[in-house]
Amino acid sequence: MFDFGPDGRLRAVTQVLTAENFARLRPGMTKDETRRLLGKPTSIAVYALKPEEVWSWHWADGGYPGDAMFNAHFSADGVLVTTSRSEVPGHEKP
């Protein structure tokens, strides 16, 4: 995540996609709270039949860049229901 000062200059860069931050997510959090904690998701998928919206972020699980996705599952009213982790095809650990 990038932090800019009032002058528009970059002040800090912080890696927010960490196991510690993922563990801070709790059911009932809003999309806004989730985005403030983890930043902009890599992708957003909407499943109308469920109904569910899933936000996903690429992250380096165990040092393998882009090998995993962390997923936040939101209900139709925009509340976090659960989280999950999935492997990225072709990026399996050796």
What can you see in these coordinates?
The protein has a 4-stranded antiparallel beta sheet with strand order 3-4-5-6, with no helix packed on it. A two-stranded antiparallel sheet has the order 1-2. The protein contains 2 helices and 6 strands. It has helices at 19-24, 31-38, and strands at residues 2-4, 10-13, 43-47, 52-61, 64-74, 80-87. The protein has 94 residues and is mainly beta. It is globular. The mean pLDDT is 88. The chain has a single domain (2-87), classed as Beta-lactamase Inhibitory Protein, Chain:B, domain 1 (2-Layer Sandwich). A hairpin with a 5-residue loop joins strand 5 and strand 6. It comes from Trinickia caryophylli (Paraburkholderia caryophylli). InterPro entries: BamE-like, BamE_dom. This is Outer membrane protein assembly factor BamE domain-containing protein. Residues 16-45 form the Outer membrane protein assembly factor BamE domain. Keywords: Membrane, Signal.
